[in-house]
């Protein structure tokens, strides 16, 4: 990996920003990479469109914005409609059929994984949906070792909820591993 | 303590730098996009025996840190545009009474309430001239978290060295962005502590009589030397005076102690300047885009470089003039209507070769925003 | 120690007008400090802007002459950063209750251990006799040539409502009484407010036909009565003097000390 640019998008409260921070932190602290993470801020704490840009790199990162994404995750239809076009040709566009109806327009590898339904069926707690999505991303792309993410989860998540989050991460990882794709550079 | 790698927001890098420098007292009032600094310090300071207080308003926060500095503590407050405006009278007081303190301004779009959650660099001139009357001020800035940490430490060091308020001009983009920060081991960076008088308790102490080197040793409130501190022009005891000689001397001292030390205060970084035909002068988050563009264009063989200013006031006029002397064109990259541009134009020999690449819409200026202007300057078309 | 030892005589003569009540209040305050045998090194006097604020230059304490209205905000920084110091904050009408009104109520709300002395002469003296939030209606001032229509604050009621745990009132005429009240206020652990009615013959007395300083002092005597006195009972129009509230309540710096202990215990774990 030299430089990898990702955009996570969805709606406030889905945990999109948290997932972005966990990924970037895992890259910096446990994978020896540089990373930047930015997000669009608004006045509302819940609801509304959310977007977080992440850049992972082996060298210094200056401009932190993503204009052409190697990987785009969209967890709402609005986010999909607004951001699908920023995916690079050949890039990965991950979405969830529960919330997003894809069109054939994007010149990208579009993967629709039923992450939400899996979380509800196997765990029953929508709060860990974002972590399942992160697991799926790692499973598909293998951009970081799963252990790096798990270490961050252990540091950041309160004791009582670690098990729940680990299960969600694993669920996503298993799901994503069935659809490995690494040509997004 | 050995060095430690963290993944944090710029605001947190500032907090870590402040604690490393020895911050003991913080007073503040919540304001976007600086609030994380207050939130983090409310948890961290008491663990070191330090004090945090959320005051009733921005003005009170500035006043409280001045009071706490006088008892011998390293102090800081953090704010953004509207709050920075409110603090100006008290910042002037700290200039006049020569009280070390650090004011962080995480800039957002102005004027007025403006664009609270979006980036701007519109407070450059307010940092210089926000308070009334002639005075001088030190203002630093930084474009990445490692530098935010270092500049925060420097802000405290300069505040103590020159007995003056120091403004740290961050912006929303670096303040909220997360990236790697390596916290240096203890003693790795120099920490300058307060210069205190060595005079014994029965010796007449003159709080405002500079030593030969221009520095004024302090005495903590609660100590053996009782003296007056005032925002009025004052004599060597700190007692109010309108004597023209006293007034003249004091104002000159307040300005000279900083302007005569511009070399010692100046901080900057340079990227690919040695043979650059085109030089971008930038600072804060916009410098990231300038450096990004320079690296990209260098790969294509273009002779382009970046001068990143880390101290804005006193303006590093000589450094800018020297570094830009051989440039065919200078592009100032900033997120305002040309506040540093004006300084650069007056610093260089050929102001007609200085151009502005800016964004003022709340979005971080991007490399391609600068590239568009650069192509025109280079005669490569629109 | 003699009372004069608490003065910086180097800076005399003072700048107050002949007949001003502020000098008498300074006298009462210094006697309180002397009788309490406080060390000069332990006292910080913080003041704002105005005639009253110049008091801090004349006392041989650590003195901080600040901005208009902000004395309590500066004092809060001094006190919280070094709680062992004794904070005295004399203020005029504008300092305490106009431009500084917000700091006044919030210092009271925190119940931080500071003694606030409101030197109430119902006028802005230093700028030449404009009305203040303590003037009340029907007063002539340079900014009220047709008399004021503004109601005044009742300092005592305001301070109590805002949370001050010691609130008292006296006058420049009742100098001994002021000393006794100030002693209790300084010893009280919490935010103490002492309103002392002062006279400004130059700007208030002349315009409002209250006569010279002696006549104005006489009014302090005839227009006020002690709390609980028969006189006050019989004539409720008189202004009450005395201690209105004196309660032990959680003090800010002590409470913050507990936060520090708690945070450090948690940090060790």
Specify Rg of chain C, calculated over alpha carbons.
Answer: 19 Å
User: Which stretches of chain C are low in confidence, meaning pLDDT under 50 for 5 or more residues running?
Assistant: none
Order of helices and strands of chain C: HEHEHEHHEEEHEHEHHEHEH
Largest sheet of chain B: 8 strands, mixed
The run of helices and strands of chain B is EHEHEHEHEEHEHEHEEHHEEHEEHEHEH
| Overall domain count of chain B | 2
Q: What portion of residues of chain B belong to β-strands?
A: 15-25%
Largest sheet of chain C: 8 strands, mixed
The CATH topology of chain C turns out to be Rossmann fold
What is the number of helices of chain C? 11
Write down the overall mean pLDDT of chain B: 97
Describe this structure as you would to a colleague:
The complex is a heterotrimer of chains A (185), B (382) and C (269). Chain A is an alpha/beta fold. In chain A, strands 2-3-1-4-5-6 form a six-stranded mixed beta sheet, sandwiched between helices. The radius of gyration of chain A is 15 Å and the shape is globular. The relative contact order of chain A is 0.17. Chain A is built from six helices and six strands; from the N terminus they run βαβββαββαααα. In chain A, 39% of the residues lie in helices and 23% in strands. Chain A has one domain (3-177): Pyruvate-ferredoxin oxidoreductase, PFOR, domain III (Pyruvate-ferredoxin Oxidoreductase, domain 3, 3-Layer(aba) Sandwich), CATH 3.40.920.10. Chain A has helices at residues 16-30, 77-83, 115-122, 129-141, 146-156, 159-177, and strands at 3-11, 34-39, 49-57, 69-74, 87-95, 109-112. Chain A starts with a strand and ends in an 8-residue tail after the last helix. Chain B has 382 residues and is of the alpha/beta class. Chain B folds into two domains: 1-265, 3-Layer(aba) Sandwich (Rossmann fold), CATH 3.40.50.970; 267-377, 3-Layer(aba) Sandwich (Rossmann fold). In chain B, helix 1 crosses helix 2 (35-44), helix 3 (58-70) runs parallel beside helix 4 (81-97) and helix 11 crosses helix 12 (339-347). The radius of gyration of chain B is 21 Å and the shape is globular. The model of chain B has no long low-confidence stretch (mean pLDDT 97). Chain B has helices at residues 10-21, 35-44, 58-70, 81-97, 124-129, 145-162, 172-176, 244-259, 262-265, 284-299, 317-324, 339-347, 367-377; strands spanning 4-9, 25-28, 51-54, 75-79, 101-109, 115-119, 138-141, 165-171, 178-183, 228-230, 268-271, 278-282, 304-309, 311-313, 329-334, 354-358. In chain B, strands 2, 3, 4, 5, 6, 7, 8 and 14 form an eight-stranded mixed beta sheet that branches. A five-stranded mixed beta sheet of chain B has the order 11-13-12-15-16, with helices on both faces. Chain B has a two-stranded antiparallel ribbon with strand order 1-9. Chain B is built from 13 helices and 16 strands. With 269 residues, chain C is α/β, with parallel strands linked by helices. Chain C has a single domain, classed as Rossmann fold. Chain C has helices at 22-35, 55-58, 71-81, 93-97, 101-110, 155-162, 175-187, 201-205, 213-222, 230-234, 252-268, and strands spanning 43-47, 62-65, 86-91, 114-120, 123-124, 130-131, 166-171, 192-197, 224-226, 239-246. Chain C is globular. Classes of the chains: A alpha/beta (185), B alpha/beta (382), C alpha/beta (269). Chain B binds chain C through residues 24-25, 27, 43, 46-47, 49, 51, 53, 55-57, 59-61, 63-73, 75, 89-90, 93, 221-224, 226-232, 237, 239-240, and chain C through 8, 10-11, 40-42, 44, 46, 56-57, 60-67, 70, 73-82, 84-85, 102-103, 106, 256, 259-260, 262-264, 266-267. Strand 2 of chain A pairs antiparallel with strand 9 (178-183) of chain B, so a sheet runs across the interface.
């Amino acid at each position: 990996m030299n430089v990898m640019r990702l955009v996570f998008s969805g709606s406030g409260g889905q945990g999109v920003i948290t997932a972005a921070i966990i990924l970037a932190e895992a890259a910096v602290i446990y994978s020896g990479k540089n990373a930047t993470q930015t997000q669009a801020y608004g006045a509302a704490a819940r609801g509304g469109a959310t977007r977080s840009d992440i850049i992972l790199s082996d060298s210094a990162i200056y401009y932190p914005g993503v204009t052409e994404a190697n990987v785009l995750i969209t967890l709402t239809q609005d986010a999909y409609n607004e951001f699908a076009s920023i995916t690079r040709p050949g890039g990965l566009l991950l979405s969830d059929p529960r919330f997003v109806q894809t069109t054939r327009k994007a010149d990208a590898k579009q993967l629709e994984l039923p992450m939400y339904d899996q979380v509800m069926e196997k765990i029953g707690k929508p709060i860990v949906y974002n972590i399942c999505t992160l697991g799926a991303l790692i499973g598909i792309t293998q951009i970081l070792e799963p252990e790096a993410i798990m270490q961050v989860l252990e540091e950041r998540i309160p004791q009582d909820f670690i098990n729940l989050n680990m299960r969600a991460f694993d669920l996503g990882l298993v799901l994503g591993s069935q659809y490995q794709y690494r040509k997004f550079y | 303590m050995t060095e430690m790698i963290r993944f944090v927001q710029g605001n947190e890098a500032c907090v870590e730098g402040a604690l490393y420098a020895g911050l003991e007292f913080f007073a503040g009032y919540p304001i976007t996009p600086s609030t994380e600094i207050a939130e983090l310090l409310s948890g961290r300071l008491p663990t070191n025996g330090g004090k945090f207080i959320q005051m009733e308003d921005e003005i009170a926060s500035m006043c409280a840190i001045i009071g706490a500095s006088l008892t011998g503590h390293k102090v800081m407050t953090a704010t953004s545009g509207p709050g920075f405006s409110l603090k100006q009278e008290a910042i002037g007081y700290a200039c006049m009474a020569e009280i070390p303190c650090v004011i962080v301004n995480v800039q957002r779009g102005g004027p007025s309430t403006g664009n609270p959650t979006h980036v701007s660099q519109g407070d450059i001139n307010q940092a210089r001239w926000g308070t009334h009357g002639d005075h001088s001020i030190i203002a630093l800035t930084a474009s990445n978290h490692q530098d935010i940490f270092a500049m925060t430490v420097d802000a405290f060091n300069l505040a103590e060295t020159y007995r003056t308020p120091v403004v740290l001009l961050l912006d929303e983009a670096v303040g909220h962005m997360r990236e790697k920060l390596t916290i240096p081991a203890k003693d790795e960076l120099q920490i300058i502590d307060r210069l205190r008088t060595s005079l014994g308790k029965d010796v007449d102490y003159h709080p405002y009589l500079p030593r030969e080197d221009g520095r004024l040793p302090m005495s903590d409130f609660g100590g053996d030397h009782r003296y007056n501190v005032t925002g009025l022009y004052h004599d060597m005891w700190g007692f109010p005076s309108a004597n023209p000689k006293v007034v003249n001397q004091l104002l000159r001292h307040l300005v000279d102690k900083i302007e005569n030390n511009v070399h010692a205060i100046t901080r900057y970084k340079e990227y690919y300047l040695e043979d650059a035909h085109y030089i971008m002068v930038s600072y804060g988050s916009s410098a990231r885009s300038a450096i990004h563009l320079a690296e990209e264009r260098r790969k294509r063989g273009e002779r382009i470089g970046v001068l990143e200013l880390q101290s804005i006031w006193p303006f590093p006029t000589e450094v800018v003039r020297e570094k830009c002397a051989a440039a065919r064109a200078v592009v100032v990259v900033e997120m305002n209507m040309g506040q540093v541009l004006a300084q650069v134009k007056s610093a260089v020999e050929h102001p007609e070769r200085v151009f502005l690449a800016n964004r003022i819409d709340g979005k971080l200026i991007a490399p391609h925003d600068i590239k568009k202007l650069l192509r025109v300057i280079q005669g490569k078309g629109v | 120690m003699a009372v004069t030892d608490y003065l910086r005589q180097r800076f005399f003569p003072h700048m107050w007008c002949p007949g001003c009540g502020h000098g008498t209040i300074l006298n009462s305050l210094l006697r309180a400090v002397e009788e309490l045998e406080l060390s000069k090194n332990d006292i910080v006097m913080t003041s704002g802007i105005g005639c009253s604020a110049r008091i801090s230059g004349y006392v041989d304490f650590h003195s901080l002459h600040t901005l208009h209205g902000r004395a309590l905000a500066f004092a809060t920084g001094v006190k919280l950063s070094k709680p062992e110091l004794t904070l005295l904050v004399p203020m005029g009408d504008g300092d305490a209750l106009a431009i500084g009104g917000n700091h006044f109520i919030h210092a009271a709300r925190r119940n931080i251990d500071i003694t606030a002395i409101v030197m109430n002469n119902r006028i802005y003296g230093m700028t030449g006799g404009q009305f203040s939030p303590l003037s009340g209606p029907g007063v002539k001032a340079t900014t009220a040539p047709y008399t004021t229509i503004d109601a005044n604050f009742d300092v005592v009621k305001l301070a109590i409502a805002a949370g001050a745990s010691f609130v008292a009132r006296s006058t420049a005429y009742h100098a001994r009484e002021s000393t006794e009240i100030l002693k209790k206020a300084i010893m009280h652990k919490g935010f103490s407010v002492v309103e002392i009615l002062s006279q400004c013959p130059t700007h208030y007395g002349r315009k409002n036909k209250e006569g010279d300083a002696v006549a104005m002092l006489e009014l302090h005597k005839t227009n006020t009565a002690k709390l609980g006195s028969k006189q006050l009972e019989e004539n409720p129009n008189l202004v009450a003097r005395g201690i209105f509230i004196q309660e032990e309540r959680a003090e800010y710096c002590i409470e913050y000390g507990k936060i520090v202990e708690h945070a450090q215990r948690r940090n060790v774990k």
